[in-house]
Amino acid sequence: MTNAVERVESVYKRRHHFTMQTRQTIEAYIGLTPYLAGFLIFTLGPILYSLYLSFTDYDVLSPPKWIGSANYVKMFTVDGLIPHSLWITFKYTIVAVPAGVVVGYALGLLLNQKAVGLSFWRTAFYMPSVVPAMATAYLFMWLLQSDYGLINTVLRAVGLPAPKWWGDPDTVIWCFILMAIWGAGGGVVLYLSSLQGVPTDLYDAAKVDGANVWQRFRHVTLPMTSPVIFFTFLTGMIASFQVFTQVFVSSNGGPANGSLFYMLYLYRIAWTELKMGYAAAMAWILFVILLVLTVLVLRLSGRLVYYAGEERN
Description:
Elements: H1 2-53, E1 56-57, E2 65-66, H2 70-77, H3 81-111, H4 118-126, H5 133-143, H6 150-157, H7 172-182, H8 188-196, H9 200-208, H10 213-240, H11 245-250, H12 262-272, H13 276-304
Antiparallel strand pairs: 1-2
Helix pairs in contact: 1-13, 3-7, 3-8, 3-10, 8-10, 10-13, 12-13
């Protein structure tokens, strides 16, 4: 009799546990429903629809017309501005992203030292990163104005040649590179947190072993902060392919398409010429380029980035 009662209680407990687990699962999905609905309607849906539009001829005013891969073929066989705009964007990325990382990291090292007015300097170097892109563009339009801009005025005063900056297709790209470097302080917060998180025991052990300042930086500081350096490099690379506001406000792609970044050209195709299908194809090509570059950088990071507690071959 006792065994029968125990079996009944055991079955009841299992069923009760199963019921509670099912109930919790259902409640969890109910709680996730608003997010899932928003993701499907406002994110995944538009992404898939843009993929469909990339195979159509669509001008907003009439229904999409299926044309197959014609948009993609045109991009690399007929439209000469596609490779040109990609080359402009690549040049900007190759220079601006590493320079921004180096300058930001150097600022982080300096601001990690004990100095008078440290809070002021940290705020001052971080401030440019929160200035709106339009304000930054107007500021540099004045600073780099070829006739009366502050930079050229200083260059002439010391006897150096004054470039045309905005008026020369060969130098206009440097205006945007300087803008990017000016805002490099945005990563200082991350660099400071990583630098302050390096265990002091490692520095003490390095000193005991006779390591000098450079050796401690190279073998302790740099490896321990490499994950943050990698993160800022990766996010900076992705952001560099999406530069638009500064270019649209200051040069609008000129002179002679010398600053025709890829995103600006995509905007022109979509909203000036109303070729939405062609613009969707351009957006998907940009997605593929960023995907490939991100995978390559992630593969490379396995050799260059140190993660504490991870064994290396």
